Amino acid sequence: MSELKPCPFCGGEGCIQRHEFVGYTDTFGIVCLDCGCETRQFFTHKKTAVRAWNRRADSAPTINTKQVKYFDEDENVWKIGEVIVSE
Ligand SMILES: [Zn+2]
Predict the structure, then answer these.
(1) Which tens digit of pLDDT belongs to each residue from 27-80?
(2) From the CA of 51, how far away is ligand 1's center (Å)?
(3) H or E stretch including 51?
(4) Cα-to-centroid distance, 1 and ligand 1 (Å)
């Protein structure tokens, strides 16, 4: 499944779905196995569905995080956590 880039929302694994409608040509879409977001469009070719999914993945912003040390007052210990930083 390496042709699919990670989900643009959660980074999860995308999965190709085949939609079968009686009397119509099968269509394809992509759904994220982790958060459930999907292309919400019926593509007649698998390749087109993959391209649409990957285009969204390309435009997803990168989330930068950095590690910070903080004091947990409940457990009375120092811990390492992660915060989101801009740029
Ligand atoms: Zn997802």
Answers:
(1) 999 999 999 999 988 899 999 999 999 998 777 777 788 889 999 999 999 999
(2) 17
(3) helix 46-59
(4) 15
